[in-house]
Design a protein that fits this description.
Largest sheet: 7 strands, mixed
CATH architecture of the largest domain: 3-Layer(aba) Sandwich
CATH class of the largest domain: Alpha Beta
Helix content: 25-40%
Number of domains: 3
Low-confidence stretches: none
CATH topology of the largest domain: Rossmann fold
CATH superfamily of the largest domain: Vaccinia Virus protein VP39
Shape: globular
Mean pLDDT: 95
Strand order of the largest sheet: 16-15-14-17-18-20-19
Number of helices: 12
Structural class: alpha/beta
C-alpha cells in the first residue's frame, strides 16, 4: 500500500476474523435468492453477535445452506449489503479485482467518445453495493453510502489504482454518514485520501466538451454524469433553435445545445455559483465556432418564479429542458413530487413554441417511470398542448440498472 494514503485509512481496524451469522425471514430469503443486494434490519430473525461496521455477515437459509455474504452495517436500516449470493467464496483482493474488471469492461465504449468523466463503479449494479466511484480525468471521487466500506477502503483503493491509476482520490460521504462524524474517525467529506489535495476546479471532457468540476464541494461527486447521453441528444436537435435549460446547474445541457448549433441558450438556476460555472464552461469551449457564436444568457432564481416571468415577457423557446433536483427521496413524498413535476412541466410548456421539443427529466428514485410520464402528460392537458412521439431514454452504460431500485433517472423527449 502506498504511503500516500491518508493515515486513518491505513490504520483502520480490521474487520472481525469470523463472520456474523444471520438467520432471516422467509421473504428475505426469497429476495436474496433472486439477487437483491440489500438485507433490511427488520428481516433479521437472529444474529450471532452485534458485530461492527464492515464485518462480514453470512446468511444461511432454513436448511442451514449458504445463501449470501456481505458487509454488515449496524448503523443503517440496510443491515447487510450483499457481495456474494447463492455461491460462496472469499471476499478478498481477487474478489474486488474481478468486480472492478467487470465494471470497467462495461464502460469500454466510452473510451472512444473523447470522454474522461464517467462513473467507474455504480454501487449495487456493479456488485459493490453502497460504493460509487466517479472519474474526472486523473481524479477519482469515491462516495460511500455505508460505514461498512471504511475497513475495506484501503484495499479497494489499491485495487482501483492498479486497474486505473489516478493522481488523487477524493472521499465523499452520503449525508447519513456525515451525520455521524464519530464513526468516521476524523475523515471529512471532500477530503483527499490519496495524492495531493489540489482537487478544486478540475477540468474533464465529455464527448469532447470541456467541463469544470469541483469534486470537493460540488453536488453528488461534483457533476451529474448520468445525463451525458441526454445532453448529447439535446445537442443533436438544437441546430438553429432557441433553447431554455431549467435547473441548469453548471450548464451541461446548455453547452451541448450550443455546440449543436443553437442560436440562443438561456440557463436558469437558483444557484449563482452554478451559473457562474456555466459561464466558465462556455469560456472553456470558445474554440468551437458554434459555441462561440451562440448567445448564452443566465437567469438566477427559483424555476417556479422565473418561468412565469419569462412567460409574462412573451419569451418563447424551440427546445425546453426541465431537469430539476429530486423532488422525492421517500415514498411518502411521491404525491407532492408528482404535483411539482406537473406544475413545472406546465410552466415549461407555456414557453415552448408550437412544434417545439420538451425534454423533461426526473431523478427522484421513488417516482415510478409511468407516474412521471403521467405527470408530464397531465401538464400538457392542463395547458392545452398535445405531446407527440413521447420517448423515454434509459440510463447510460456507466449507470447500469441491474435491480429495480437502481433505476432512478427518467427522461422524456416529446414534440408538441
Amino acid at each position: 500500500m502506498s504511503d500516500a494514503y491518508h493515515s486513518t485509512l491505513k490504520n483502520w481496524p480490521a474487520p472481525a476474523a469470523a463472520p456474523v451469522k444471520l438467520r432471516v425471514s422467509a421473504s428475505a430469503e426469497s429476495h436474496l435468492r433472486r439477487g437483491h443486494p440489500w438485507l433490511y434490519a427488520e428481516r433479521i430473525q437472529s444474529q450471532s453477535d452485534d458485530g461492527s461496521a464492515g464485518d462480514l455477515a453470512v446468511v444461511f437459509d432454513r436448511k442451514r445452506a449458504f445463501l449470501a455474504i456481505g458487509l454488515l452495517d449496524p448503523h443503517s436500516p440496510i443491515r447487510m449489503r450483499v457481495l456474494r449470493a447463492r455461491t460462496s467464496g472469499p471476499i478478498d483482493r481477487d474478489f474486488f479485482d474481478e468486480r472492478m474488471g467487470a465494471a470497467l469492461a462495461r464502460r469500454e465504449p466510452l473510451l472512444a467518445t473523447d470522454t474522461n468523466g464517467y462513473r467507474v463503479i455504480h454501487g449495487e449494479s456493479d456488485g459493490l453495493p453502497g460504493l460509487v466511484v466517479d472519474r474526472y480525468a486523473d481524479t477519482a471521487v469515491v462516495k460511500l453510502y455505508s460505514h461498512a466500506w471504511l475497513p475495506h477502503l484501503a484495499l479497494v483503493l489499491d485495487v482501483l489504482r492498479a486497474r486505473q491509476p489516478f493522481e488523487r482520490i477524493v472521499l465523499r460521504f452520503a449525508r447519513l454518514l456525515s451525520a455521524e462524524p464519530d464513526l468516521l474517525r476524523g475523515l471529512e467529506d471532500g477530503q483527499t485520501v490519496y495524492g495531493n489535495s489540489d482537487a478544486a476546479k478540475l477540468i474533464y471532457r465529455e464527448n469532447g466538451l470541456r467541463f469544470e468540476v469541483d469534486p470537493v464541494r460540488g453536488q453528488k461527486t461534483g457533476c451529474f454524469l448520468d445525463q451525458r447521453d441526454n445532453r448529447a441528444r439535446v445537442g443533436s436537435i438544437s441546430a438553429g433553435k432557441s433553447v431554455l435549460n431549467v435547473c441548469s446547474y453548471t450548464g451541461g445541457f446548455s453547452l451541448s445545445a450550443a455546440r449543436g448549433g443553437a442560436t440562443e441558450v438561456c440557463s436558469v438556476d437558483l444557484s449563482a455559483p452554478a451559473l457562474a460555472a456555466s459561464e466558465r464552461n462556455f469560456a472553456l469551449n470558445r474554440d468551437d465556432t458554434a459555441i462561440a457564436s451562440a448567445q448564452h444568457e443566465t437567469l438566477q432564481g427559483d424555476a417556479f418564479t422565473v418561468l412565469p416571468e419569462l412567460a409574462a415577457a412573451r419569451r418563447r423557446f424551440d427546445v425546453v429542458v426541465l431537469d430539476p433536483p429530486a423532488f422525492a427521496s421517500k415514498r411518502a413524498q411521491v404525491p407532492r413530487a408528482l404535483q411539482a413535476y406537473t406544475r413545472l412541466t406546465a410552466l415549461g410548456l407555456e414557453l415552448l413554441t408550437p412544434g417545439g421539443t420538451l425534454v423533461a427529466a426526473s431523478c427522484s428514485s421513488p417516482v415510478a417511470p409511468d407516474d412521471f410520464r403521467a405527470a408530464v402528460v397531465a401538464a400538457a392537458d392542463r395547458t392545452g398542448r398535445t405531446l407527440l412521439d413521447i420517448e423515454e431514454t434509459g440510463h447510460a452504460i456507466d449507470h447500469p440498472v441491474d435491480f429495480a431500485e437502481s433505476r432512478y433517472l427518467k427522461c422524456l423527449f416529446a414534440r408538441t
